[in-house]
C-alpha cells in the first residue's frame, strides 16, 4: 500500500513540475481564411520538439487578437499527449508595463541637468510616478530619467505568445497543426465599371481589399476568402487529436478560384501571399469585358420625385460574367469627349449568385424630368377610383429615351383607362414603358379601380 502511495505522489509531482520548457519554432506553413466581419481562421504547421513528460511550450508570433477559446491542436496520429493548461499573453514591452512590473522595487533616477542620482522605491504609476527615497520621504513625479537594472524586461513579451502546459508520452520532433479564430482581419470586394459610349456595355474589374490589424504578419500564407453571412456564437475550446491531412497542391492560376462551400462561396488564391500587420492589400478578383448593359430611367407614377437612373446587367456566362459576386461597392465610370474616365455614380450589391440580374442605382437624370398629379378620385362603398396624369419631358437634343413608370396599387385593382400599354409586374404593381423622343414631351394618363375584399 505504501509503495502505491509513493507512485501516485510521484505522478502528481511530475504533472505539477514541468521538466522541460521550449519555444516552438515559427510556422513552416500558414493558411489564412478571412470572413467578411472582422474574423479569420488561422492555421499554422509548426515543428514541435516534445519531451517525455510534462513540459511548457511557447508559441510566439500568434495573432494579437487570438481568441483563446477556439484553439485547436492537431498532432500526428499515434502521438499520445494531453493539454493541461493554456495561457495567452499579450503583455508586450512598453515603458508603462515596465514601470508597473517595478512597483515595490528600487529604481534609479538620473537628473542630467543637475548631475544627480537618486535611488528610490517605486510606489505607484497611477497619474504619475510616486517614489519613496532612502530617508522615507514621498516624492511625486521627481525629475530625472528612470534607469532600471539589466534584465528588467525579461518578464515582458516582445510579441503575442500562446503557452501550453502539455504532457506527452512520445518524445521527439513532430509536425503539428495549430488553428484558431482571430479578430483584426477582414476583407471586402470592390468593383469598377467602365461604360462604353452609348451605355450598352461595360468593362468590369473586381478587387478584393484585405485589412490586417491583428498585430501579426502572416508570411507566405495560403489565402482563402469566405463570402456569405456566417452566424457567430461563442466558440467552445477544442482539443482534437486527429492527424493533419496533406494540403491540396497549388494551381497555376493567377487570380482567385471560386468554389461552393456549405451555403457560402469560397475564393481561393492559388499562390502564397504575405499579409503584413497594419497593411491593406488589394488582389484582383475578376475581369470581364464588354458585359451587355441596359440603362433604365425610372419615374414613380404615384409619388413622383426624381427621374432615377439605373444600370442593369446579368451575372451570367453569356454576358461574359458568371462568377458569384461577393457583396461590395460598385463604382461606375464613363469616358468623356476627351477620352478621360469620369465618375458617374456608385451603388452597393449584395452577394449575387450566378445568372442573377444586378441593378445599380447611379443617380438622378438632369435633362429628363417627370411630374405627376392626381386628376380624379371617387370613393365607393367597397373601394375607390383614382386617375393620374404623368408628364414626361426629354430635354436631350439628340437622344430618344424610354422611361419606366411603375404604379404601385394596394388592394384588388384593375385599370379602367390608360393611354399606354402596361404590364402587371406583381399583385401590387403595374408598369408602363413610355418612349419619349429627343426634345419632346409625353403625357401618360391612367385610371384604376380598387375594390376592398
Features:
8-stranded mixed β-sheet, elongated, 6-stranded mixed β-sheet, 32 strands, mainly beta, Immunoglobulin-like, 453 residues, SH3 type barrels
Can you describe this structure in just a few lines?
By secondary structure, the chain is mainly β. The protein has 2 helices and 32 strands.
- Tally the beta strands: 32
| CATH architecture verdict of the domain at 368-451 | Sandwich
- Shape assignment: elongated
Q: What is the terminal-to-terminal distance?
A: 91 Å
How does the helix and strand content classify structurally?
A: mainly beta
> If you compute it from the alpha carbons, what radius of gyration comes out, rounded to the nearest whole angstrom?
34 Å
- Spans where pLDDT lies below 50 across 5 or more residues: 1-19, 234-254
**CATH topology of the domain at 368-451, what is it called?**
Immunoglobulin-like
Helix % is under 10%
What characterizes the major β-sheet? 8 strands, mixed
For this structure, what is the CATH class of the domain at 368-451? Mainly Beta
Average predicted local confidence, pLDDT: 84
Specify the number of helices.
Answer: 2
Strand content: over 45%
Amino acid at each position: 500500500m505504501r509503495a502505491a502511495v509513493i507512485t501516485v505522489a510521484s505522478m502528481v509531482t511530475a504533472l505539477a513540475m514541468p521538466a522541460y520548457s521550449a519555444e516552438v519554432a515559427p510556422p513552416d506553413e500558414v493558411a489564412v481564411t478571412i470572413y467578411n466581419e472582422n474574423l479569420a481562421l488561422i492555421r499554422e504547421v509548426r515543428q514541435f520538439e516534445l519531451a517525455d513528460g510534462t513540459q511548457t511550450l511557447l508559441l510566439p508570433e500568434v495573432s494579437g487578437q487570438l481568441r483563446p477559446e477556439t484553439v485547436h491542436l492537431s498532432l500526428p496520429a499515434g502521438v499520445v499527449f494531453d493539454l493541461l493548461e493554456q495561457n495567452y499573453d499579450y503583455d508586450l514591452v512598453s515603458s508603462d508595463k515596465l514601470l508597473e512590473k517595478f512597483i515595490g522595487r528600487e529604481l534609479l533616477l538620473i537628473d542630467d541637468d543637475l548631475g544627480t542620482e537618486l535611488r528610490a522605491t517605486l510606489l505607484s504609476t497611477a497619474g504619475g510616478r510616486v517614489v519613496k527615497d532612502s530617508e522615507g520621504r514621498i516624492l511625486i513625479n521627481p525629475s530625472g530619467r528612470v534607469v532600471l537594472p539589466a534584465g528588467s524586461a525579461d518578464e515582458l513579451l516582445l510579441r503575442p505568445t500562446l503557452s501550453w502546459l502539455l504532457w506527452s508520452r512520445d518524445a521527439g520532433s513532430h509536425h503539428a497543426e495549430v488553428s484558431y479564430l482571430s479578430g483584426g482581419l477582414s476583407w471586402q470586394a470592390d468593383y469598377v465599371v467602365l461604360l462604353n459610349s452609348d451605355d450598352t456595355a461595360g468593362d468590369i474589374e473586381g478587387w478584393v481589399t484585405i485589412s490586417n490589424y491583428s498585430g501579426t504578419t502572416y508570411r507566405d500564407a495560403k489565402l482563402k476568402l469566405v463570402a456569405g453571412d456566417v452566424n457567430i456564437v461563442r466558440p467552445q475550446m477544442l482539443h482534437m487529436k486527429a492527424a493533419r491531412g496533406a494540403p491540396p497542391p497549388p494551381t497555376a492560376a493567377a487570380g482567385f478560384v471560386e468554389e461552393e462551400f456549405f451555403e457560402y462561396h469560397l475564393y481561393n488564391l492559388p499562390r502564397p501571399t504575405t499579409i503584413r500587420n497594419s497593411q491593406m492589400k488589394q488582389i484582383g478578383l475578376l475581369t470581364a469585358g464588354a458585359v451587355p448593359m441596359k440603362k433604365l430611367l425610372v419615374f414613380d407614377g404615384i409619388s413622383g420625385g426624381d427621374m432615377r437612373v439605373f444600370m442593369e446587367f446579368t451575372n451570367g456566362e453569356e454576358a461574359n460574367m458568371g462568377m458569384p459576386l461577393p457583396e461590395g461597392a460598385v463604382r461606375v465610370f464613363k469616358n468623356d469627349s476627351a477620352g478621360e474616365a469620369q465618375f458617374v455614380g456608385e451603388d452597393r450589391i449584395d452577394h449575387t449568385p450566378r445568372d442573377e440580374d444586378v441593378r445599380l442605382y447611379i443617380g438622378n437624370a438632369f435633362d429628363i424630368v417627370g411630374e405627376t398629379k392626381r386628376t380624379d378620385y371617387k370613393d365607393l362603398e367597397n373601394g375607390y377610383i383614382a386617375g393620374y396624369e404623368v408628364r414626361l419631358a426629354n430635354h436631350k437634343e439628340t437622344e430618344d429615351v424610354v422611361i419606366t413608370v411603375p404604379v404601385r396599387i394596394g388592394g384588388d385593382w384593375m385599370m379602367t383607362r390608360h393611354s399606354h400599354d402596361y404590364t402587371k409586374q406583381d399583385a401590387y404593381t403595374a408598369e408602363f414603358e413610355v418612349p419619349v423622343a429627343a426634345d419632346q414631351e409625353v403625357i401618360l394618363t391612367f385610371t384604376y379601380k380598387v375594390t376592398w375584399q
